[in-house]
## 1
Amino acid sequence: MMRDKFGSLTLLFSILFLIFSAIFIHELFSASSLTWGRLGVAFVLGQRWDPLNGVYGALPFIYGTIVSSTFALLAAAVLGIGVAVFLSEISPRGLREPLSAVVELIAAIPSVIIGLWGIFVLVPFVRDYLQTLLAPLSFLPLFSGRSPSGLSMLAAIIVLSFMITPIVVTVSKDCLLMVPRELKEAAYGLGARRYEVIRHVSIPYAKSGIIGGLILGYGRAIGETMAVTMVIGNSYAISPSLLSPAHTMASVLANEFAEATDIFYLSSLTAIALLLILISLLINLAGRSVVMKWQRSVR
Amino acid sequence: MGIQKKFVIAAILALVIIAVASLTLQRPIGPPQPTVTTQTGTEPTLGRRIVLLGAGATFPYPLIAKWSQEYEAFTNGMVAINYQSIGSGGGIKQISERTVDFGASDAPLTPDEAKRAPGLLHLPETIGAVVLAYNLPGIEGRLRLSGGVLADIYLGKIAKWNDPRIASINEGMALPDREIVVVKRSDSSGTTFVFTDYLSAVSGDWMRGVGRGKVFNYPEAIGARGVQAKGNEGVTAIVKQTPYSIGYVELTYALQNNIPYALIKNKAGKFVHANFDTIASAASAAVPKLPRGDESWDKVSIVDAEGEESYPISSFTYLLVYKDLSYMDKDKAQALVGFLRWAVTEGQKYCKDLYYVPLPPEVQRLNLETIAMIRK
């Protein structure tokens, strides 16, 4: 009997949570209906955001969010998986715990602190050194131009990758540690070297977990607000160069919600919030399906 | 089984309650029904201590916090003020819905906003000035700017510090051959409103190309030189960090952070420094043109004011309160009126310590006339 009671209680909680999410999405829909009614798809594809003249287009923010988080994810994937492999496979036992603790500590730093570090350390570094270093690549549109202030998409990408690397490391490390000893020993027995074991045994085995970590990190990067707003320069223009200032969906919400009084303006901001949720949802679903496919292929 | 059934019933009940709640909570956006008068604040009957609720602009927050402390002491703890600095937009929304007893906004109500909250009075509570903070390494002396030059810097027409138009009003200053990094607010704000109001007043190009508002877009000519930062503190930090930059901030922030700010050419043709006297002078000059407290303040602006000593980029920030307070209980209305009367007169003496500009006597008088219109 006790078990049933407990089971029903947890069921109730889950239902409540579902209902809350439904109300939440419904509320966002109804609060942004004005924008969808007036602009529809043109809102998503609109390249201009000019509240002063009542022009609302979400593309600069969608572009900024996707570009900044994707590049950050790439950087975090390389760095994070590297660190995870070191921690799980290579590092001596005595070093593993303290190093993991440090990595987890970084994940716990509040984003406003990272943002301050961004403004006072990273942005001047990008302005004075990094872009000079990148100057030979300036024939690429990606690195064209110069950033006189240092506030740029590049600074946002660095901040974001710094923030999501710990997530990737922690999840990947745990998955790598779960690779059965027998498998690895068998590979060593066949004469494989350490690199080969990691490359052909450990990583494939832990793949779905690692991808899961990357998705978590991506989600964090897409939703990150404070740290990004502080370093990205918040420009409404879409520019192919990483050295230009840009804007993201989360940062426009943080910036403009408090003082938005006009109904159409408020509705357009709410529409961006809805888009942000939909995009993270889509990415999550895509990631999940990839993970499931891999899990099936492993078995 | 019995217990499980109960839980199923409980779950269904919870569902129904939530559904009903979500339906009733769905109010259409727009004016509240006039019949709905919400009981505001907590009013313990013990000793009739009254708490006045306010919400709105962040700019006057430190001053209102000081007032609340002083006024509570002044009334022996009988009247307390609870002010939430949630931004002007939020303040206007909350006073429109009567969920607070008074609102505060950096910009006067637009005709549209006024229509949604008929009967709101404007009470200028203090004056804020916007200054142009800059970062020019190795340059001694104060930079001088005129409205036209400033507009063209923000329009992207003047791109370098050694532009002849800047040089001609800054003789003897070794202006560098460097690109100007232009900084503005990324969040929508009253500071931006005052700044764009000023540029619209002095530059036809600005008026036509950009306009006045709490947010604006950089013209394309600015390109990557234009950056945006959140809040006065964000702009201050970036100007402080970035060589060859310029940005507009509330005077307080420039003073507290010890950043140089430019002298601005006023209507009379003099380059003036922003300080208590020059800002108050601009407010005094505007007094003859001010509307009554119950009229529309939409067109009120004290930028580019007349007068030899007037600093040209400043504005009032307002308390908003209903002319007809019969919707709240009598004691509370009494307390609110008492507080307002005190704030716009006696309370002004706390301004200077907090770097706010006290209202000149003419504006205080206007406010007292407005307060006299309130029906309790």
## 2
Amino acid sequence: MNAIKKYITSGLVIAMSLIAINVAFAADAKHVFYPSDVKNPRIQFLTAINGEGFFSNGSSFGNRFPGYNPDSQREKAPFGQTYGLASTQDELFICDVTKQQVMIFNFKTSTISKFGVNLSKPVSIAIDKDGTRYIVDLGNMKISVYDAQNKFVRTMADVQGWYPVAAALLNDSLYVVDSKNHQVVVMNKNSGAVTKRIGQPGEAIGEFAAPTAITVSDQGLIYVSNTHNGRVDVIDGNGKFVDKYGDSPNVAAGSFARPKGIALDKENRLYVVDNSFENVQIFNDKKQFLMPFGEIGNVKAGLNLPMTILVDYDNAKYFSKYVAPGHEVEYIILVASQTGANKINVFGFLKQ
Amino acid sequence: MKRKYLNTNTKLALLCSALFLMFASTAFGLHYDGKCRSCHTPHNALASEVPLWGRADAVMPAPYVQYTSNTINATMGDPNGISKLCMGCHYKSTGYGLGQDMRNDHPVSFTYDAALAAADGRLWDPETTPSGIGGSVGDGTIAQDMLRGVDHNQLECVSCHEPHDKYGYGRGTGYSDDPAGGDGLAYLVKLNDAGQLCKTCHRK
């Protein structure tokens, strides 16, 4: 009789533990919104991409527990250090500096392919309309060009010596951020010939201090993350100063301490990653501060020394399963961090 | 009787401060371009902007916190707290790297205490071994002089590197302009000829 009682008791304990686990996961499954205090938030944290297990539910436990949260899965083939991000229809390009390769996540086929020969530190990638890939290889101090079939074409470099850290395309030119000489080097995208050098070291207008990122608007304006000057500069295709976001490094909201990755959406909202605040701040096309987002630490939506950002309209539909009921996503925002548990955090910009 | 406002020690301290400020720009010039603000971001000089999105009565435009130590589950190699300040610039995706591959670099943001020394067997006990740094730091133990955190048991970048170059060892002999090269032994807290900096903690 006592034995039976014991069994019943242990059964109860097990059942209660399972309920507790379930509740814990349910709590973890709570959606993260920005702003968090309004009925119609603008951004939702969707998921994190931490490695090659993204498509395969790479959990060693499987999905056998009720209320199991895929976010808590253990990644079987984790990324090394992810930096440059780019996207095309159905495909996300991820530069992995440690694994010295570029990975392509194809959301349509749920497959991953890799390319890159003799890459040393692929930190950034720009993809042309015809599919040509320009990989910024900081280790080799070269731009490695690959065609749309991922076949190596050629390398390009500035013979004067540089630290190429990011690149963007506009018309026939490749604009490369050079953090060594604190300038933007303009190259012919086909020949690699340097046609212009924009800026010089310093703090004044038209000067850069350790710039790190670049992006181009649909109107042909070039945005440069002027990191140590604590601002984002807007220049035209000829390098003429047009405007700036932020003034000098400051911890006040709407300012920047160490701006790194930048991205624009189709409404010319500017997203600025701050490596120091470990958040992302959004500004509208009138330069008004809209809001910050991102958490600190190894938590959901946690950014740990965030570095690069990508706004992606093409592949938003593949993330609909993460979107909270009653919401729809217009585009996704991917933020890659230098360290921490979450390598690439994916946020969704919600339709209003 | 004339009242003495400043004693000799105070005068000396003031003189030293003045000299320090005069030469500071030269010293810091070695580390980036003499801009304190690269690391010491000004606080509250500007009013924080109110975000347009969000309820006006519940917005969060306070000054941002930089590099809090919230990465509670930090594992070896995940820079934490103060080392994050260094990692913001000295990392693989910037030209100001820490050598070619972080795996070859010394780990940071981990607990180095008597227990670790005992378990490892090839480390000196930081709580009893002198740091040998001397100078203005004094002659404390490794834990007192080099380890950080509230318990003085965290090894961080600044355990061995003093970014203001207070000790005057400069960029180090291994410095190279090549982002893939250089040994990164810059601004050390003590000379590393014959590896004496390494040997502060490592027993052979």
